[in-house]
């Protein structure tokens, strides 16, 4: 029978203790993983309120905080075959303003000014699949929904 030295046991214990954990050398994190930097509009997902927010399709499901008097602009890029419906607003804290640019077929754009404190939900949707253009083509009934909650402070 082979004799195991204390040094080999200690090395094995250290290796096992390190399994399943990663470290980039930051000892101040106490083993917690930091979230990846956000590429979303300022004021999204619990950050400080911003005076302006630019929302895209990738912001689906996020919460945005905008200061009173600020602006929220929405640009959802669609196609003629898969168009976005106009953006709907539920709540009174935002007032529609002129978006100031021409949209392409299938896109949905909107611009709002934050007029009072409160919470508003912006929503839109579009088909998941293009409509068939000829008999016998496959179609689907799926809908892609988009929504963002806007808090005005």
UniProtKB/TrEMBL annotation:
Segments of this protein annotated with the region Disordered: 24-48
Record keyword Signal present: yes
UniProtKB keywords: Signal
Signal peptide annotation: 1-23
Protein name: Lipoprotein
Protein source organism: Streptomyces sp. 900105245
